[in-house]
Design goal:
There is one protein chain. With 166 residues, this protein is α/β, with parallel strands linked by helices. It contains three helices and seven strands. The strands form two sheets. Strands 5-4-3-7-6 form a five-stranded mixed beta sheet. A hairpin with a 4-residue loop joins strand 3 (88-93) and strand 4 (98-105).
């Protein structure tokens, strides 16, 4: 299994790894040592909390390194008239009679609450490669819904969109 990520995704993950290893890890180690000096470890909440923060940081570093190692780097460009990565797409959801605007992103940057959907999501798969005016079926579970692509605003892959945490 691999994730299709852009060069910017890889860069942002490496920046987070560098921060966590070079800046955060030494601070967390110091916090553990300070908390250990408080005495009895069996009833030392500060020590347990510091160790938990240290484990969480190490886990995130391992996760990011695995993501980079297994990633397939993709080109985010698409045809000028087709929906692709980082494009803002306005959809008319027929069942609801409402418009919705989403931005197609890589899995690492998805955030449905901010209108960013992964290209691997059901809606993302239905939209990518289609043009304004196309009617697409978004398969969800055993059913789905029809949507019309009303507008496509071309986007670019930049550093402003944060990567997803856990």
């Amino acid at each position: 299994m691999h994730d299709e990520l852009t060069q910017v995704d890889i860069k942002k993950m490496q920046e987070e790894i560098d921060y966590r290893e070079l800046e955060l890890r030494p601070k967390l180690i110091e916090d553990v040592q300070t908390a250990r000096a408080f005495g009895d470890l069996s009833e030392n909440f500060e020590y347990k909390a510091a160790k938990q923060a240290q484990r969480k940081n190490d886990s995130r570093v391992r996760y990011l390194k695995r993501m980079i190692a297994s990633a397939v780097v993709i080109d985010p460009t698409s045809a000028a008239d087709e929906a692709g990565l980082f494009d803002r797409v306005t959809l008319f959801i027929e069942d609801e009679g409402e418009e919705e605007t989403v931005t197609i992103v890589t899995t690492l940057r998805q955030d449905p609450l901010k209108g960013r959907i992964s290209k691997e999501s059901p809606a993302g798969q239905a939209i990518v490669g289609h043009k304004a005016g196309d009617r697409v079926f978004v398969k969800v579970g055993d059913g789905g819904y029809w949507a019309e692509i009303r507008k496509i605003e071309k986007g670019v892959d930049d550093d402003t969109m944060e990567i997803r945490s856990y």
